[in-house]
Specification:
Layout: E1 3-10, H1 14-17, E2 25-30, H2 38-48, E3 71-77
Antiparallel strand pairs: 1-2, 1-3
Length: 89
């Protein structure tokens, strides 16, 4: 299996400002990088976000949202999605 990182934007007031959306997270896209394991995706994330808590199975393979960027990342199984977001430099 191959894995990718989904990028979402967290909006603490999203459910208030857009009640029709039923949530607080907006899908932004997928990082243009493939991973052989979920752990490899997690390691890549933490290498590029050392100020954040690790992505692990305990947290359902998703990160906390970053208080500066308001972005969060989710490890997903790759099923042919467009990978439009440049990888971390």
């Amino acid at each position: 299996m191959v894995y990718i990182l989904e990028v979402q934007r967290f909006d603490i007031d999203g459910h208030i400002t857009h009640p029709e959306w039923n949530g607080k997270k907006e899908h932004i896209g997928y990082i243009n990088k493939l991973f052989r394991t979920k752990q490899e995706a997690s390691d890549y994330y933490i290498q590029n976000n050392p100020h954040m808590r690790h992505i692990t199975s305990e947290h359902s393979w998703k990160s906390d949202w970053d208080p500066q960027t308001k972005l969060l990342y989710v490890v997903r199984t790759y099923t042919g999605e467009y990978l439009k977001i440049p990888h971390f430099s």
